[in-house]
Amino acid sequence: MTRFNELLKHAVLLFGALIVIVPFYQMVSYSLKSPAEIERGIGGFAGSQALMTDEQCVGRNTPDRSDVETARTRFPGQDDSHVLGQLLEEVRAECQVRPAVFNYTSAFSEAPLLCYLLNGVIVTLSIFVIQVVVALPAAYALSKLRFWGREAVFGMVLFCLLIPVHAIALPIYVGLAKLGLINTYAALVVPWTISVFGIFLMRQFFMTVPDDLVDAARMDGMGELAIVWRVMLPTAVPALMAFAIFSVVAHWNDYFWPRMVVTGDRSLFTPPLGLREFKADIDGSLYGPMMATATVIVTPLIAAFLLAQRKFIEGITLSGMK
Amino acid sequence: MVAVDMPPQTRRRAARSPQTMAWLLSAPALALMLLILLVPMLSALVLSFTDYSLGATELNWVGLDNYEKLFTRSSYEKMLWATLTYVLVVVPMSVGLGLGAALLINSLGRGREIYKTIYFLPVMATLLAMAIVWELMLHPTIGMVNRTLEMGCGTWIESLWPWLADGCANGMPIWLGDKDYALWVVCFIGIWQGFGFNMVLYLAGLTGIPRDLYNAAEMDGARSAWERFRLVTWPALGPTTVFVVTITCIRAFQVFDTVEALFPRGGGPSKSAYMMMFAIYEKGIKQNLIGVGAAITMLFLLFVMIITVIQRRLTERKVHYS
């Protein structure tokens, strides 16, 4: 009976797992297949990888008048249209690629995907670094220093925790527009520079650090700022790691805010914006490259997650600790 | 600048005063909280009573006009319906599935980690990318979903499942293009993406339940698994449930990525999936009707506040910070 129960549980969980995984399977599968295979729904997971003709490569290298002139010596005694036909055959032969290679190279060549990825890295990292630089000293002051107004400041932090970012998006957009900052890196980063959650989290963590440690540092003649960075920061590394994961995952995947403040300027696109643009331009046959783009964008975090699951789950569910 | 001009002695004394130092350390955080969180929230409130638009030379006080529009125009009525439907479907489903998955996984002997990892994958993945993958899977002709369904045509399944028989006879649904299905598809993606997060929180909650409680319940005559769940597990998970429901609710109100990616022209077929966040983006940014966008923002804030107040009421006795 218990054996049967266990099997039944596995059956239910496997069914759920199947539904959860199918889109990932499909995404990677499409990113490997040729348009014809996608169109007809054949080829299993990776397709047959039979050579296909890259029509865009053919388009780029279509022989023109001067090519025909120079090639005439190679085809003696044939008229121009024949020479042209021969040359076209050669170009088509040269433009044969494997579908997987075609999809991934087009993902990077059809759109500046590399630039999008770089933007994603720049934006997420700057956000995290600034959040820490702002939050750590405040968290230290709130946990280890006694000063007039401390309760009020902490009360403000607790109140701000309740403000959802989406509720202030529009006024911040207006403010940035007034300052002429729409379509800049600043617009992507500035609204996130303050993480009240980060302050709260680090403050809770610092409360557990013994006061003796701080006192000893003061005895050694360290200034308060030095204590924050040279004493408190090293003790906070585990909490900071979790916060880093929380922050980086949220901002790498964020689409709402970049959509609001970046309009049209492709050089500032973050990965999700780039993918969205790709989808908007798509002419119907580029599902393969589109899915390759999606795979490239999704993979870094998924890979990191699979390597350090415990840390990631801890980081993402941090908000559960409030 | 001022500090540099001061004579060295005063500077040293200023630096030594713990009061000043504490304020200096929290100053950047305080300033940013004020500028990025509190001021924008108040300006959203003010803007919602005006007809402000970017580039306009003047700003008129329009009283409650924007709010009146929200409650009288049919497109906003659709927005409220779509958003509330989404919340009322996604929250119970993703909380229920999260709890179910956690209970099943927790009772397993082997294979816990693998299910946990799989179910958490969608939480990590860029939602925008996954929405586009789902769109491709739901493509009426080349999509995997309809292909799979069509395999059931002409088999015994058809006789058991009238819906499928209808699809086989009159063509499978076009999903995102059909106003009877579009909103449900968006809900489905929301559940698919979010329940793993809830599962992880529930798993953490389950490990916190002492084994003795189960033994005691068993001695009191709670023999069936259901009795044990009702008497021990469910009450013990109370705080987790309150938190999970709150955070899922707030997130559900913020749904944006999926609808923006799936319905580029806005709101889906007959505006059946016209969500609040999308409305803020469309009115406030695309159509430059900041006043209306701000009014929707305030409505969103109101919903979030109601949820938060309920949560606070429910957890008041248990949570204490300092």
Question: Strands, helices and their partners?
Answer:
The complex is a heterodimer of chains A (322) and B (322).
Chain A: H1 2-32, H2 35-40, E1 52-53, H3 55-60, H4 65-71, H5 80-94, E2 96-97, H6 99-110, H7 113-144, H8 150-161, H9 165-178, H10 185-189, H11 196-207, H12 211-219, H13 224-235, H14 237-253, H15 256-261, H16 271-281, H17 287-307, H18 309-316
Antiparallel strand pairs in A: 1-2
Chain B: H1 2-5, H2 8-16, H3 18-47, H4 65-72, H5 74-106, H6 112-124, H7 127-137, H8 144-151, H9 156-160, H10 162-170, H11 182-207, H12 211-219, H13 225-236, H14 238-253, H15 257-262, H16 276-286, H17 290-315
Helix pairs in contact in B: 3-17, 4-5, 4-17, 5-11, 5-14, 6-11, 11-14, 14-17, 16-17
Could you give me the name of the CATH homologous superfamily of the largest domain in chain A?
A: MetI-like
Envelope shape of chain B: flat
Number of helices of chain A: 18
CATH architecture of the domain at 75-125 and 174-315 in chain B: Orthogonal Bundle
Largest sheet of chain B: none
- For this structure, the quaternary state is heterodimer
Distance between the termini of chain B: 36 Å
